[in-house]
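Predict the assembly for these two chains.
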Amino acid sequence: MVHVVIALLPGLGVSAWFLGPKVFLVVLVSILAAVATEAIGTRSVQTLRDGSAVVTGMLIGLCLPPSVAIWVPIVASVSAIALGKLVFGGLGKNLFNPAMVGYALVLIAFPMQLVYLDGLTGATALDVLKHQEKESLDLLVNHPAFGLVGAKHFEWMNLAFLVGGLYLVLLRIVPWLLPLSVLLGIAVPALVFLPLGDATYSFGPPWFHLFAGGTMLTAFFIATDPVTSPSAKLPQIVYGFFVGSVAFFIRYFGTWADGFAFAILLANAFLPLLEPKKLP
Amino acid sequence: MPRPSFTPINWVRATPDSLLDRIAEANIVGMGGAGFPTAEKIALARKHAPNFVIANGMETDPGVNADKVLLERHLNDVLTGLRIVAKILSAVHSFVATSRERTGQVAQSLLNDNETVHYMKPTYQNGAERELIQILTGHVIKDNSFPAFEGYLVLNVHTLFAIAQAIAGKPLTKRLVTVNDETHWIDIGTPVEAILASSDPIRVGCYATGHRPRANEVLTAPVNAISTDKSVQALPCIHCGWCDEACPRDVPVELLFVLAEQLKPNLDAQDALNRCNDCGACVVACPSNIHLLDHVRALRQRNDTKRERISRATQARIRVDAREHRMRSDVIRSDTKRSERMQQQHKWQ
């Protein structure tokens, strides 16, 4: 888990560069809340050595916008560890990704807290897509919220997470098949839906979706949580593709700008079907 | 019975029988871990010509260097041992398998015509007997057969060293043992707790495949390592599947672990348990320091107990049935006897 934290650092740095140093505060508060909950909940420091609580807190901190009130990461991290992990029996026995449980909870309960409000960023590119008023692809791409290939600023954060993720893949800490199928899961539907757009409506090309929102963070760090993802090859492909495409369809049809939290939780619920534990 | 003499033997001139007798007298056993009497193993292979001898220096136990150090310091003695065994068997060809390139190069310069040296990466199965035979000669030993029955003899390099020593008239009193990371000569018979004195629990053998020491256990010839037990700090299983991936025999290790944690036998798992050859690759792979092999062995033990109980119950059932049958026929017989007697009595009256 030390390597996971190291791999998250470039993404954290780039986030702080674009979104301001408050990112560090949010991440730090999330980590402290997660670690404290784990220690109090298990009444020991035994499972802290694993570092999974630190990673959970860090992921929550990176998912939240820096403009949140400081109690939001605390609520998210405490509920992530307590409701997402400890109630199921602690480390290794949870059904759902703890970080996504906490994030989804605050996303539904306090949606106004989770809007990127800084004057720096304004509406994100995914928000623009969601609330677009019949604009063509060319118009959209020229919108100030869009960057070179993806969402403005977010494309660089995604690139940093991609670099960190590749580091984990090269160290073989993360199976390469999972992130690849998540990325394909979002890129293939985007490619299919691309020609469906016309002069009055478009949903952006695949490369935009790969470098917008939390795509790379999810693909390399959230979907690859060993406890809630399959370990066999074929289930990994199905799981990853499911996560990616559900996230795309939530972006396309759903009410949320980015849908990875719900995509992950939904895929977690299907895990026992994907990977039945049977003796050969 | 004359006392066996333990004087040096000139193996070049000695007869194969006298050499084999000396190996038997010296009570040499397989020092790679099996502890099988070497003289018996050679005698078995001798009945099945043509013979191939393999000096196994692969030593794939993680973190163990006893054989590697031996090959570095005493390569000549190991080769002598190999030639002695080859002479006893009149072997067609001898092989030396090592996992160190440098040892392989040194050995290359010392070899005769019918000997070859192989350098291989120390991946797990390379050191296993059957797999080694297949890699070196291409010959596949069938599952229901043994290498010795097909003329193949795989001996650990430390065993060969012991053979060379015995022929030279020196008894085996110590062996190379890797204690955590350092390899030393240690006297056989030393209490294992004295070898690695630490407050942490230890394992006899390497960390992955070794067992917890028994009461008053001492160092024996087959033990190549004494290690600190890391599994006392084990964390919960996170179902990452690394054990399944590491397993060279495709055993569903993670599933066996889950079943073992139920603390009850599971006869459906028997096929998977039989496939496991206790190599310990899963233990090395586990990021949570879980000693998966311990759990697999425990499950196997529980299954054995249950199977034995079933077979004993079946046998008891057969005995009871037979007794009932016997009783019934006895009753019938005694009934007929009584009626005959009564009929006679009636006649008499």
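Chain B has three domains: 16-172, 175-231, 234-349. The radius of gyration of chain B is 27 Å.
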